[in-house]
Amino acid sequence: MPSSNQRIEIIRRTYYDSVTLMLVAKELLKTGGVSVASLSMGTEANYKIMGSGGFDLGGVDATPNDLIIAVKTDVPEGEREALLEGALEKAKEYLANPPGRKADSGGDYRPKSLDGALSVLPGANLALISVAGKYAGDVAMDCIGKGLNVMLYSDNVPVEKEVEIKKAAAEKGLLVMGPDCGTIIVRGVAMGMANACPTGPVSIVAAAGTGLQEVHVQLAKRGVGVLHGIGTGGRDVRREVGGIMCLQAVNALLADDEVKVLTVLGKPPAPEVEQKILQAVKAGKKPAVLGFIGGEAKGDSGGVFICRELEETAAVAAALAKGEDGARARENLFREYESLRQRAETIGRRKGFLRGLYSGGTLCYEGQLIARDILGPIRSNTPLEKEMKLEDSLKSEQHSMVDYGEDEFTQGRLHPMIDVSLRAERIYEEAKDPEVGVILFDVVLGYGCNDNPAAGLAEGIRKAQSAAGDRIAFVASICGVDTDPQNASEQRRILEELGVHVCESNARAARLAAMILEG
Amino acid sequence: MTMSMTKLLKEGPKVVNIGVEQFYADLKTQKAEAVSMDWKPSAAGGDLLARLKKLRKGGN
Amino acid sequence: MIDIEKANGEALSRLLSAQPLVVGMGKAKETVPGMKDRMLLHAGPPLTWETASGPIRGGVMAACMYEGWAHTPEEAEKLAASGAITFDPCHHHHAVGPMAGIVSPSMPVFVLENRTAGNTSYVTMNEGLGKVLRMGAFAPEVIERLRWMEKVLYPVLDAGIRLSVERGQELDVKNMIAQALHMGDELHNRNKAGTSLFLRAIAPFLVETCRNAADLAEVIRFIDKNDHFFLNLAMAAGKASTEAAHGVEGSSLVTIMARNGTEFGIKVSGLGDDWFTCQAALPDVLLFPGFTREDTNRDIGDSAIMETYGVGGFALAAAPAIVQFIGGTPKDAANYTLEMYEITGGENNMFTIPALNFRGTPTGIDILKVAETGVTPVLDTGAAHREPGKGQVGAGIVRMPAEAFLKAAGAFADRYLGE
Q: Which residues of B fall within a CB distance of 8 Å from A125?
């Protein structure tokens, strides 16, 4: 007698929810060879449904309180017995552990509208916007309409939109940080790409991300905390925008009694904006340090310290926070820099070109300023002078420093602080050039950044070292602290094990790198 | 309900995250109050959206 | 310029203050306004025989044979295609029908009255599970059952309902829905508790009025075996309530969502009689044994009135078992409901969800919010086989298509922006 292509089993006096039964049946169908599967309580209606599903229920005497498990197969006769038996076993297993019943992961509800978000968090005071630039401006306007301050991480927002948003916000006394603002700290909480440092008496207003990060970290290394770090985006202090937000932020912090020392950072603003900042800061009667990176060496102005480098700004601000002499701190710092020459000697002079590969835009900028003083003109994709622009960002020429955070590297790709592979590869490429003597790079830590950048870069460094042997000296700075998710000391260890010369700041690293090639 | 920036600086951030999920995760790690939106560009084309915005404003 | 918020507030309050009571029964041709001989009502927006889907055609064929207009399925098909029958949406007659939703002149209907505003609604009795007209089946057993319903079920229920009305104890359907929500029903795919509550309420009146014990027993067994019996009453309650909210100048509140197996259609309170339609969704649902997605017909039925009314898919957090249909967790069920708050005008006054701290269900779909957020209503519903006569293939969660809402939003802007 041919073996049946179906098996029916009855489990008496049991109850299962019909949905659970359907899920088990669905799971059984995934088993090869099971063509139809049905699990149902023995009700009249279910008999009919199973009948139309192709089961022969002759002789089945299940009552509505009994469970019928029915499976059908389309495998050849010889294999049927085993397959059907296996299917029934599986069915019973699944009944004991219904599939699709995941542990309640409690996925937080993600509202689809701003109103929805505000009903979940009625006390919201800040919108952190990182959607595509073409939408970001309108999203920011909606948020301002609801009375929220805005951190606009997105870039590629048209300047007209930026002005519209900032004017609307200023009218309501709200802050707009950005566009293209990657780092914010409010009451010590890091947002975007920012470091986990302690809070304290200093607050910062900065145009861009890594400038703020470097000063934040340099202050922490000197035992001084930062309460607020407010970014305004790079365009704010230009003429078209007029420094609207920079001034709002400066005034708010000057009026805040928790802020003991104010720092303002960025590339030199438009002259009229610089004037306004200076005026505001002088009127504020609080110790203040202005760090206009690469600005003219104007000297301090009536109680307001004016610096040109990031570590310098931090050193002066730290001194002021501790009630010490800012000018003295600055002198000491530059004396320390001089002693880097000895370190260069110890490392051993190299011949050839400097190649800097940066993930931080402000760090790259500062690096060029410092290296230029020692080595002469530096080429870059973000050069200090137009004439020094690299024709092809992927091809270094003579002394070059490349900012991997620029558009040509980030279109459709993750930011270099998150994905280090491009830079790791480039380190190897540069090493193959026989005229390269020093490779310089930054390692930026903190929330939002790669969880082990040193390890990622180490791959490129190892390959470079097998190609170049001892010809190339590797110099790096780590913008981070031990309390960052990546742990700065750990990152340092990984690099030093490979013979990388790690410096305490970007300013020192750039100097050291240039000094190794000097003369 | 207008929140001035001073309130933000005094209260600390209570964030509506719109975009990259990692930023929301980092806020939760720091135990900050936050909610993350599942943001999508509106199904209505830019045109219709602009008209709807006008409708909303005009009515009240 | 109209005040949309105010208009929507008015429309929502008319919906929420509706009190639908069962006030009687009758044959469709004598009871349903506008019902004529050789007329068949159907679910969803207007259609023609040419555009009609399998389940609708099957239901029409069954109805023709039930009415005696044709004696075989082939005759029925010819008749339907000939133009001798008028097809009209149930919604044009203050009525609603689940799945194919076919109402023919001889079919008995429940009559519900919104005590607050005085408007009425109509719905047939639910046939049960398996091979039924509403799934497009037209086998002899379907016709037999319909005849039994007309000859036995109807008179027994009718007598009981009359008595309840006489005594001033009309069945309060909204009240039953509210209780059922706390007993695991969401009132679209799960109506078990509602059916039990209905049977409990009507039983004494049936016992008092029914002279034939055998008939009474049959009736009670019939209702007992049909976990969805209450659905039709709940739908009529929804119809009576949402229709009361229609016609408020400047309101963007949805008063009808309905599907006919080919198209999905909505009506909006402040946009008059216009239907806004688009292709109905193709359900991706949990399937009964032996069926595949290729067998599934497009979304069908007036049962979307339940979500329009603030329950069904909008109350998934009250019936987490349903969300297993797509391998979800109770948190997913809650998240669906939370999402619906973002496209509705307010919270229900009587329908509450224990799992959300007894928050009222999201009620009053706003086409403007749908257009702005891109979030469309979520329904949980049965799916029919695309071929007439093959019945139900599965059940699960389905998203309504955005197009109809966008069309309505555009029309709303046209009308109320005045430019």
A: 3, 7-8, 11, 13-14
Interface with B, mutate which of C278, C366, C416 (most B CBs under 10 A) = C416
- CATH number for the domain formed by residue range(s) C247-417: 3.90.1700.10
Q: Which of C1, C249, C332 to mutate to test the interface with B (most CBs of B within 10 A)?
A: C1
* Segments in chain C below pLDDT 70: 325-327, 418-419
ipTM above 0.95, yes or no: no
Q: B46-59 vs C403-417: helix axis angle to the nearest 10?
A: 50
Is residue A316 one of the residues assigned to a domain?
yes
Whether residue C86 lies within 8 A of chain B, CB to CB, comes out as: no
Q: How far is CA A156 from CA A411, B46, C80, C354, in A?
A: 11, 18, 60, 46
State the total domains in chain B.
Answer: 1
Cβ burial of A338 (10 Å; 0-12, 13-18, 19+) is: exposed
Q: What percent of chain A has pLDDT over 90?
A: 67
Q: What is the residue extent of each domain of chain C? A: 20-235, 247-417
Which residue of chain A comes nearest to B11, CA vs CA? Answer: A187
Domain endpoint, select from A293, A319, A336: A336
Q: Is A24 exposed, middle or buried (0-12, 13-18, 19+ CB in 10 A)?
A: buried
The DSSP H or E segment spanning C55 is: helix C54-67
Q: In chain A, how many H helices and how many E strands?
A: 18, 19
Q: Which of B14, B16, B35 to mutate to test the interface with A (most CBs of A within 10 A)?
A: B16
Whether A44 sits inside 8 A of C225 (CB atoms) is: yes
Cα–Cα distance measured from residue A476 to residue A442, given in angstroms and rounded to the nearest whole number: 6
Using the beta-carbon criterion (under 8 Å), do B15 and A128 form an inter-chain contact?
A: yes
Q: Would you call C289 and A17 a contact, using CB atoms and an 8 Å cutoff? A: no
Q: Cα–Cα distance between C179 and C191 in angstroms, integer?
A: 11
- Alpha helix stretches (DSSP H) within A97-153: 114-120, 133-145
pLDDT in tens, A49-90: 788 778 888 888 888 778 999 999 988 888 888 899 999 999
Topology adopted by domain C20-235: Enterococcus faecalis V583 fold (3.90.1710)
Q: How confident is the model at residue A42 (pLDDT cuts 50, 70, 90)?
A: confident
Domain that residue A211 falls in = 114-336
Q: Strand, helix or coil at C347?
A: strand
> Taking a C-beta distance cutoff of 8 angstroms, is the pair C386, C54 a contact?
yes
**For residues A47 and C284, what is the distance between their CA atoms, to the nearest angstrom?**
25
Q: By the 8 A CB rule, do A455 and A420 touch?
A: no
B21 in a structural domain: yes
Q: How many residues does chain B have?
A: 60
Q: Per-residue pLDDT for B2 more than 60?
A: no
For residue C417, give how far its alpha carbon lies from the nearest alpha carbon of chain B (Å): 6
DSSP assignment string, A437-498: EEEEEEEE-SBTS-S-HHHHHHHHHHHHHHHHTTS-EEEEEEE--TTSTT-HHHHHHHHHHT
- Which residue carries 């919906």 as its tokens? C15
Alpha-carbon gap, residue C57 to A222, rounded angstroms: 82
Cα angle: A207, vertex A208, A211; to 5 degrees: 105
Tell me the pTM: 0.77
Residues of chain C in contact with residue B52, where contact means CB-CB under 8 angstroms, are 368, 371-372, 409, 413
**CATH number for the domain harbouring residue A16:** 3.30.70.60
C278 vs A519: CA distance, rounded Å: 77
Residues C57-92 have pLDDT tens digits of 999 999 999 999 999 999 999 999 999 999 999 999
Within the 220-249 window of chain A, which residues sit less than 8 Å (CB to CB) from chain B?
228, 248-249
| Average pLDDT across chain B, whole number | 84
Check if the beta carbon of residue C262 is closer than 8 Å to that of residue C275: no
